[in-house]
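<context>
A single protein, sequence plus fold
<sample>
Here is the protein in question:
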Amino acid sequence: MGLALGVDAGGTGSRALLLDHAGVQVGRGDGGPGNPMAGPVAAQTIGATVRAALRGHDPARVGFAVVGIAGLSSLANHAVRDAFAAEWRAIGLRCPVRIVGDAVTAFAAGAPDETRGAVLIAGTGAVAALVDGLEVRRTADGHGWLLGDEGSGAWVGLQAVRSAVRRTSALGTAVMEHAGTRTPDELIAWANRQSPRAFARLAPLVCTTRDAEAERIVAEAVDRLLATVAELDHPDGPVVLAGGLLTADTPIRAGVRAALGDRARPSGDPVSGAARLALQRRVGVVG
């Protein structure tokens, strides 16, 4: 009987899961970062992870594979696309290998019984996507921290710094201590040296500080994330919540879940979502 292979690859690491025809795990691999924005080397990293999952199994028995990645647009680069194709051949995969955006696998992990719905991801950045089968039909935000990512960790942290340089508050004091600064001018100089990830590291501070400024930022983050979901114009379907701000116990998650009600679904393990999609595609469930 055929096997199904699922892969979840991103900037932090890569994981692969091999299922038998009954959906039972028979292999697993873990590897390094696999975001294709890093170039053709990402194919080699993901390939090593897949080989680990296939250890002891004939690659030719895999009936379908789904690879969920961040930075899907990077596959428009011929060198990157060719590197992946060459890696699949070198591994010995003879099946179709479908590469999809990480929103697709996140949705499959959080709403395993659904084929259509939305995903809201709020980590360092923020994006919402309307998913149908193996396709992202529409997206909202995800424009990066300079132009968007509203309600994300980076956005929340940046609002906290902006507040700290303008007014005195418990949040402002906490931000100053985090940055190792004593005056607004020092904080401005610090902020101009930081990356989006550095601002996102302030988000837990905002979520746990109990003062009016922190509560204002949290409430606005919730409103902006809900507005991003509303842009998808999908009022009735499930919304899978993914990313650190929406999977950890934060007031932002609480606010979003309260507003969405029964539509909100917690995200599951994306590699399991990828493997499930591969299994369904192998037996002809997903179109």
